[in-house]
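Feature request disguised as a bug report, sorry. It would help if multi-protein outputs had a clear separator. Right now it looks like this:
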Amino acid sequence: MNLSDRDKRILKIAGPVLGGILVLFLLYNLFAAGGGPEVASPGPVVPPISPSPSAPVSPSPEPPASPVVVFAGRDPFSIPPVLATSSATSTSTSTSTSTSTSTSTSTATQSQGGNSQDFTGKTIILLDVFSRSGQEMAQVTVNNNPYTVAEGERFAQSFQLIAVSGNCANFLYVEESFTLCSNAPK
């Protein structure tokens, strides 16, 4: 193989430089390590000191356990309720004195004959509220799975029916309360 003038110049310069780096590397490793293992000479033997009997030994305090973080909020990737567009943006709750207050804690929309609410991929729809044997109940669907629940009962793992008032029902999802109202007159 024929080498060009350029290749010959590179070899003339790079060869001694690489050789020098190799020599420096070897010298550093040989002399920096101390030349080999040394045998330690035995020194005077000192007996161990035992603690005095009057000083009680207390165990060292352990660091406190780190707290367990539990996320019970809303999905950070979902649209905030304030910005969501819907046909009805407020719900109403009524008290025993028949006064109603308007809240905007949840965003209800009309669909399939009842109001609905979306929670991180779970859609709850209130179909009807009724009384059975004096017990207030609600008929709902969560992701198209039907449930007939009484006041205080949990369903679909994360939901709970809190109270029924008129044609509306108050629910709890994890820690967020909301109200849905049925279109059917009572």
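(second protein starts here, but nothing in the output says so)
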Amino acid sequence: MEQHEITQAGPLLDAQGNLREAGYAKKLLPQYDRNRIKGHVMRIKEWDYYLVMNGQFALALTIADNSYMGLDSISLLDFWENTQVTQSPMRLLPMGATGMPSTTAEGDSASGGKGYSLLFRREEERRLLYAHMEHFDGREPLDAYVELTGEPEESMVICTPFDKPGHFYLNQKINCFRASGKVTVGEREYMLDTADSFGVLDWGRGVWTYHNTWYWASASGLVDGVTFGFNLGYGFGDLSRHRKHAFLQWKGP
């Protein structure tokens, strides 16, 4: 299979709402515009998902507007204690009202409800993640502040069509952020330090068909002192122009 690399910036969709250019890119060159979508409004999916972790724990934060359903999720995995807690409140029929950014280069994502709030803020040289939930683990509250820096120059961007007009998937995965900050759950504290803590952003926008299968694996860390990350994927769509796999070696800080 010959993979096609997208090398020029331009609109993601044509006048019919189909991908102008299917393939992969090393930066977010395709320009997403929700107003160009021609597929059914109930099939539009937009989400920002961040995972930060080190050898002790992992924190996953999600803000998603899936048109018929909004999903805001917080997961905490404690590797030392072999525990995990996930809370995923849902919102009915947001239909794009969440206001998800059209690019990862700028714009904030925010959502909340009764007893919780999430904010992902994009600044020039860093990303700031805030999370609060009053009753996360039983009646214990969760508060998180995370700062992500050292964004690599390259990332994995894929533009995937489906075998149905007006359906597509734009995805960017940015590995190898350096993470710092703190997560508290009741009296417990979890610390993130750039020396050993990393983060990944999974950013997705698209119009999906109803039935899909999707698997994803991702990692970021150090190999012989060099920052190294990868993504492995399998699933939906027409993959004749690209694969959902990427390896990243980053010699930055």
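Even a blank line would do. Unrelated, but nice: The mean pLDDT is 92.
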